[in-house]
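Whether sequence alone determines local backbone shape is best considered at the level of individual chains. When preparing material for the folding task, we compiled for one chain both its residues and its backbone structure tokens. No coordinates are needed to read the tokens, only the vocabulary itself. For completeness, the protein is quoted in full, as a sequence line and a line of structure tokens:
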Amino acid sequence: MEKKFKIRPKGKINQLPVTPGVYVFKKDGELLYIGKASNIRERVKNHFEQPDYKDYLFLDKVKKIGYIKTNSEIEALILEANLIKKHQPKYNIIWKDSKNYFFIAKTKEAFPRIFITHQPASKLKIKNLPTVHTQKFKIDYVGPFVDGKALKQTLKILRKVFPYRTCGALPNRPCLWYQLGRCLAPCLLKSKLTREIPSIKIRMVKKYQDNIKNLTKVLRGKKVQVLKNLKKEMNKASEIEDFEEAAKIRNQTFALEKILAHTKIFEPEIKLDDWKKIEKILKKIFKTKKKISRLEAYDISNIQGQSAAGAMVTFINGKPEKNFYRRFKIKISGKPNDVAMIQEILSRRLRHSEWHYPDLILIDGGIAQLNVARNSKFQILNSKNIKIMALAKKENKLFIEGQKNPILLKNLPREIFNLILQLRDESHRFAISYHKVLRKKKLFG
């Protein structure tokens, strides 16, 4: 069943949702412009409060605003593409010349190649778009997409679930993408062993083409169908007692569900006016009147306590400031103990007054990590100025210093939800990158 826009008058922007989705500007029955957003209300406000040269083409004509909510930014990106293709809004076409549209291309061969192109198939009925050049293989297209950066990030994320090749010609041996689990390495079929066992090729071709089929369906907005088919395949594998394959499909299903629910791919850059609003909400949450500008987040990365690494990332007014990032090689030894590791890196950090102290600290963990961070703060600084919170990954519960019960992250305003997840993800990324460095040093000296 096709989703329909919910319509609001132009003067009722505050009635728009603060969720991801797609919005449309309308004049009577005419669709002027379709866009996507991680926060529909804020994005629409930006069009009117901070218009750019493109907005001046149609803003004075807008009488009504419509929206469709989605569960994630990826779904918003895909829905935007489908709606632009269907409705061809006048001002999406006028200010986007043909070469600035993006399409996902899929070659028609045993192991299809996936890539982004500006050259769409001529069957798309959008004015002034060039026809496709002569190709070695026939090509199917998905699109058009407006936001190339978000599209690249979407493909990067979905490739973790449905690995595919991007190489123009199959190499003689597997490359790094195979090692990273982003490609099934059809180049392995060039080996003597696989040539001698035809069933290997048959199985790989089927698995690869299933991946491409599912990827294409997701990009066309058919996620429900894909999830349903994956679950059927998982049950079928279980029935014939192929439990290894069933487990792989189960993991694929879980990963896809998680990605389509939580992934952040086109969060707008936080501007000073936006930060003032975010700061106001943070002050209310932490029950303080003191300025909140500098935020730090901490995470630990280790394997059973080995090559343990700690990381600190710093955001100022909502933006990452990489000059203030710090990493810590964990000194304590013995059994892995995340609470003790958090205590160590936070104690070491708080002794560096020359780094400037934060207004707010985010710790990866639950109530135990929050308590040890709070104790470290009072033992070293004896200060109430730094506020501390801890985010438990399993249910995204936020524990706040001085408050008895945790808050579910999803119940917080969208701006705070986005900020905390961005802090957590960046500290996690930075900790893992240093952990890998330490492991490599240990292995190779």
Q: What stands out?
A: Confidence is low (pLDDT under 50) at residues 122-134. DSSP finds 13 helices and 15 strands in the chain. The chain has three domains: 6-95, 99-223+257-262, 272-440. Residues 272-440 form a domain with the Nucleotidyltransferase; domain 5 fold (CATH 3.30.420.340).
